[in-house]
Sequence to fold (350 residues):
Amino acid sequence: MTAKKDAVRKNAERDPAPAEETAAEKSVAEETAAAEKAAPARKAPSAKKGSAARPAPVRKQASPGKPAVAPGKPVAAVEGGAPAKTVAPRAPRDESRTALVRRARRINRELAEVYPYAHPELDFENPFQLVVATVLSAQTTDLRVNQTTPALFARYPAPEDLAAANPEEVEEILRPTGFFRAKTKSVIGLSKALVEDFGGEVPGRLEDLVKLPGVGRKTAFVVLGNAFGRPGVTVDTHFQRLVRRWRWTDETDPEKIEAAVGALFPKSDWTDLSHHVIWHGRRICHARKPACGACPIAPLCPAYGEGETDPEKARKLLKYEKGGFPGQRLKPPQAYLDAGGTPAPALGAG
Fold:
């Protein structure tokens, strides 16, 4: 009898009885029975042969050391302050056209709040002064142009005056802007063209402006948008850099960039959009060392992290009024002064 019991015990240890439920199986069975009792009228769907029940999704917990990005509105870096968010999700490579348009327009809205006083940073009083100043701004800063043009326009106030000017005298005035010989040839040439072909007036059409010496599409759109109120996308080096960082387009040709970005926005937004992007490129999203940690649109930027992400270090990279320094215009608009902007010094001052 004892031998028989030992055999039964050994068999049970080697091959437990299938009728005996484990604690986990019993728990599952009880939960299933309770669910069926609570909803007797619901008919359970028939399972396919060989299929297993799909487990309930488990919500993944965030890593304790990894900061999360709040979905709320980013805080603008006004008055040199850092945004609340320092980590931004990258835009998916398969971003849909609709999602791209929404993200691009939101970036423009955010920048409009950061730079409500954005304006052309070249001093001018009329279309002639603006077209000349824009030609002179090639390969130099708007600040340097603004420091140079007062003497130029004081001596040659109209196209007729500059058209008849002595090139050597103009070169001496324009020397601080760099490439002064080529620029002298351009501004004297465009002045002659204005006198001979347009009665001394700056034309208000793109096809006419680009015929002037030294005037390309970028310069033409600056003049059309800011002197005539006709919308245009100004694709300068800052604009090209930022729209590619934001993945608005992969184009490298300025005209193709102009078309691609223009298609994302209503035509009425083009001029102000250009100001917002260019201002952001000059003040925060620099070419070599962007101040990512002080950027108000970090949560929307696929290129976040290319520059300094530490808020304190990033604030030290801010330029012009964002960094507490003078702006680029000697005579800026009143709205800029009201916002705390400081006029630039005259040439040779300080």
Notes: The first helix runs from residue 2 to 14. The mean pLDDT is 82.
